[in-house]
Amino acid sequence: MIFGEFTASSDKKGTSLFNDLQGIFKGEDITVNLVQTQDFSGGFCLHSRLPYTGGDMYHNDPGRDILVLMSGCIYNKPELYPFFNIQPETPDPAFIAAVFLREGPGFAEKLNGDFTIFILQPEKKQAYLFRDHLGIRPMAYTILGDRICFSSDIMGLCRTCPGKEIMDGNFLMTYFKSIDLRTTPNQRVTKLLPGHYLRFSESGIELVRYWDPGKIKVDRELSYGRMLSELKSLLWDAVQIRCDQRFVAGAHMSGGIDSGVISALVRSSYPRQRTFHGFSWSSANFTPNNIPYDERELIKKLCSMAGVQPVFSSMNIADFQRIVLYYYHNQCYFFEHKTEEQAQSLGTNLIFSGWGGDDFISIDHTGIDSDLLFGLNLRRFFHRNPVIPFRKFLRNVLSYVIFPAVGLLRPGVARSFKIYARYLKGPFKRSERSVLKDFYFYRSRHGLHLGLLRFYHLQERCESEIINGFRHGVEYRYPMLDKRIIEYMLRVPSVILAQSDHNRPVLREVSEGLLPEEFRWHWQKADPVQFAHTEYLFKESAIVFMNEVGDWKANPDLGFVDFDLLEKDIREFNRNPERDHKTLFIAVVYLKAIHEFTRTYHG
Question: What is the pTM of this model?
Answer without folding.
Answer: 0.95
